[in-house]
Amino acid sequence: MPTTAPTAHALSDVTASDGSLRRFLHGLPGVDAVGLEARAASLGTRSIKTTAKAYAIDLAISMVDLTTLEGADTPGKVRALGAKAVHPDPTDRSAPATAAVCVYPDLVGVAKEAIAAAGGAGKVKVASVATAFPAGRAPLEVKLADVRAAVAAGADEVDMVIDRGAFLAGRYLKVYDEVRAVKEACGTSARLKVIFETGELSTYDNIRRASWLGMLAGADFIKTSTGKVAVNATPANTLLMLEAVRDFRAATGVQVGVKPAGGIRTSKDAVKFLVLVNETAGEGWLDPHWFRFGASSLLNDLLMQRQKLATGRYSGPDYVTVD
Question: What pTM, to 2 d.p., does this model score?
Fold first, then answer.
């Protein structure tokens, strides 16, 4: 489902004013919803052979942001998650580490210590949600304090939420300015993931506009969702965001990552998303630096499928930990 990428020249002044930003975002090609969903469904039917499936499962494990974002999170739970991220399968040290552990800002230090204690320092990142996650309903100074606290605690990555109310009201420059301010608060030590909460944006056109808005504002990653609403990552909305990062790189030379989050629970689902990445953005995104899964239960299924490929049988229900 090809789109026409804006040129670098066309992007030079689009953020100069609210009017110019609005004209640019509303001038992006409209999304053919039927075509988008049909292509996502078609790519999801691709069969993966055994050798390629083993590679895909290990790649998917290495792309997981192992996540716990509950009010009942404890330091003990985060320590266990950090150890699991470094050694997902204690019985098989050939299993790759996950990309990151994702927690609330007050638990960043605990996650850093746990990862270091397990031997994963410098290998497994710590990501922190911020900006009044998941609703994002707070004054900008509160959001920025949230970000600075996470970075000060050692977060390698910050997952922010956009102000969906401002976006849906057409206040695009406000959203742009907030993302820019958060990017500045991240400094040079933390990469920024911008969460759109696609399930609340109502239309595919809005998802395309949000993708370009986030990238123009300096996002290192664009992310589908918080995992806290009814509709989270889907093949169609992820395909649309992959088209956006592909076209943005064609226009600017800048590569931006993509993170679908919420609702991806099985190895079969993960492999379908990897096919989307390969067929839409290309091999350059098939790397944990550019593609992530925001998930918790997904890792367990990947580990069980990995053991099935290695031994020819499924393990019992107590083979993996319940996080």
Answer: 0.94
